[in-house]
Design a protein that fits this description.
Helix content of chain A: 55-70%
Order of helices and strands of chain A: HHHHHHHH
Number of strands of chain A: 0
Oligomer: homodimer
Radius of gyration of chain A: 19 Å
Structural class of chain A: mainly alpha
Number of helices of chain A: 8
Largest sheet of chain A: none
Chain lengths: ~200, ~200
DNA sequence: CCTACCGATCGGTAGG
DNA sequence: CCTACCGATCGGTAGG
């Protein structure tokens, strides 16, 4: 799926995005100045405007690139026509892995979208709603097929999405368990419950 | 448990805190100006300094008051000496209700603590770690007593806390289910799982 | 609780 | 990619 691009330019943009995501996560979008971002990159603030036309464009790229990745994944899962339990398991695993691997991007996408211009906030929240609705359909189908308990499908989706998105609490502290153990535990917990 | 206070003064402070929590949630701490907060309250910005010595003090009150409420609750549960399943269920229910009732305060406490002065960030995160550790102990005991499955206790706690804290996604949208149904569904999902 | 105001910092532009 | 710089806005103070 690799695309051909002018490598130098591309990697510089990516470098800026990665550093911006880090700073936006740690201090928030508003509290991160273009000067601070530039300093982290070893350049002066006005030079950033050769790569992005505004501070907000950086945020937009972070949010929508990340959203695309999740959207593409759920679409791939849906056309796979697997049974609902497996699709749900795969989605949970994907969320956990992505969160652990690209924490800054996922965190910023999850929280700093508030600072997008209002038209894009609408677009962004719409995409998330569509994503949720796709998950709701999967749970509904699983209930109809007898794979899942009878539950409001929307609460199940909310619980699952909350649980995987909230991994931010864990990330970047001293980790008390291995990532693979955590991933398996979360899948088991959300599918089979904690009670014996 | 009501305490005696100078009512007029108290309710003005509370009014400011409530409005500040709302704005901090919607726009973030840094992007909320004292002028904007004052305007919402129908006063001028400098008048706010008759009630709080700084913008940051407002944030501190929001974060630590909220933390106290959760800490007091878990301590009450622990001394109740109930069985582990019921304690965990009660904690989940408390989180869900508190999130739905005082969304702005809980959301701001969960995310805007980053903007506390660094000494208080340390204090705050310590309190959260202590809270987590208390939950871990409850799960460990439940496993030892055979109430819960064998699982890394810390992953279970992380999944539960993530799930209940992430309810922010739901709040304030058009609600597709009743709050009580949601609360029961979350408890059942987290304790008994989704699979049939 | 207000008016008047300050020093600092911000996002962004001009021009090279 | 840099220097020089602008207008706007910020948190907060003085003084009443």
């Amino acid at each position: 799926m690799a695309r051909i691009k002018p490598t130098g330019n591309f990697s510089k943009q990516e470098l800026i995005l990665a550093k911006a995501a880090l700073l936006f996560r740690k201090s928030g979008y508003t509290a991160t100045s273009m000067r601070a971002l530039a300093e982290e990159l070893g350049i002066e603030a006005p030079s950033l405007y050769n790569h992005f036309s505004s501070k907000n464009e950086i945020l937009q790229k972070i949010c929508f690139n990340t959203a695309d990745i999740f959207n593409n994944n759920i679409n791939r899962e849906i056309i796979s026509k697997e049974n609902c339990s497996l699709i749900l398991e795969n989605l949970i695993r994907f969320h956990v892995r992505k969160m652990l691997k690209d924490f800054d991007f996922v965190y910023v996408s999850d929280h700093e979208w508030r600072h997008l211009p209002s038209q894009l906030v609408t677009d962004y929240l719409n995409q998330r709603k569509i994503y949720e609705d796709k998950m709701v359909k999967i749970v509904e189908k699983g209930i109809a097929k007898g794979e899942f308990k009878k539950i409001y499908p929307y609460s199940a989706v909310l619980t699952i999405l909350s649980a995987v998105r909230g991994l931010e609490t864990w990330q970047k502290r001293k980790r008390r368990i291995f990532e693979t153990d955590l991933e398996n535990d979360i899948v088991n917990h959300l599918l089979y419950g904690l009670k014996k």
